[in-house]
């Protein structure tokens, strides 16, 4: 079985369309687990009936995804953002790639759904950087064997950069499978405050993380940068 784990917080406007796109997978040895981090809107209600499990967890993507993993029955876990769309045949491609290799985890290439041309360049750079470094971001729909996820202790319970920390640990077991099929993620966070400002913010925060900055403080700076 494969388990799709979706962390959400106040996604009432997008969660129903996200889950409806996944309905054809249900019953084909795929389960969908939605993990709500304390939404104050109708996110959880909109999801009921469209997911196999809707559970609550403390806020924070790392904690939510770990909670989803604890509930999952699958031997492979796929962590999917609510605003990210899987390509056709994604689950079969992922399963085949895992079965035919000794690699224990991977991710998809990403495209950013936006009319802004510069975000095509951003996506290209994200995919290229991921191949060079062996590190993936949550936007790339990270998937991992359950045994390997448990071996590294799951996502570290940090406020930001949990995807960087997880994949840094996983690549010490095997390099990633880098699937060229593209997931499509929303460009809303780049469009809201401008792509250049958002790119520079993320570069600065990532550098600070690598230099040992406190993820809790980085999360505060991230939210300030988004809403300033």
From TrEMBL:
Keywords: Cell membrane, Glycosyltransferase, Membrane, Transferase
UniProt key word Ligase: no
GO MF: glycosyltransferase activity
Entry's localization field: Cell membrane
Record-annotated Glycosyltransferase 2-like domain positions: 3-117
InterPro entries tied to this protein: Glyco_trans_2-like (IPR001173), Nucleotide-diphossugar_trans (IPR029044), Trfase_2_rSAM/seldom_assoc (IPR026461)
Domain of life of the organism encoding this protein: Bacteria
This protein's record includes keyword Kinase: no
CC per GO annotation: plasma membrane
NCBIfam families: glyco_like_mftF
Record's protein name: Glycosyl transferase family 2
Organism (species): Ancylobacter dichloromethanicus
């Amino acid at each position: 079985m494969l388990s799709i784990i979706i962390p959400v917080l106040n996604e009432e406007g997008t969660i129903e369309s996200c889950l409806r796109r996944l309905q054809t997978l249900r019953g084909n040895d795929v389960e969908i687990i939605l993990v709500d981090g304390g939404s104050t809107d109708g996110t959880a209600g909109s999801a009921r009936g469209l997911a196999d499990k809707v559970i609550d967890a403390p806020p924070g993507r790392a904690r939510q995804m770990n909670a989803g993993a604890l509930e999952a029955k699958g031997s492979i876990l796929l962590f999917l953002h609510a605003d990210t769309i899987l390509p056709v045949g994604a689950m079969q491609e992922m399963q085949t790639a895992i079965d035919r290799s000794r690699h224990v985890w991977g991710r998809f290439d990403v495209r950013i759904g936006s009319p802004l041309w510069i975000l095509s360049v951003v996506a290209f750079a994200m995919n290229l950087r991921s191949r060079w470094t062996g590190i993936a971001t949550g936007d790339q729909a990270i998937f991992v064997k359950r045994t390997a996820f448990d071996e590294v202790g799951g996502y570290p319970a940090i406020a930001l950069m949990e995807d960087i920390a997880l994949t840094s640990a996983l690549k010490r077991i095997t390099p990633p499978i880098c699937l060229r099929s593209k997931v499509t993620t929303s460009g809303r966070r780049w469009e809201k405050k401008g792509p250049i400002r958002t790119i520079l913010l993320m570069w600065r925060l990532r550098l600070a993380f690598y230099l040992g900055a406190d993820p809790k403080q980085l999360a505060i700076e991230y939210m300030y940068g988004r809403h300033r």
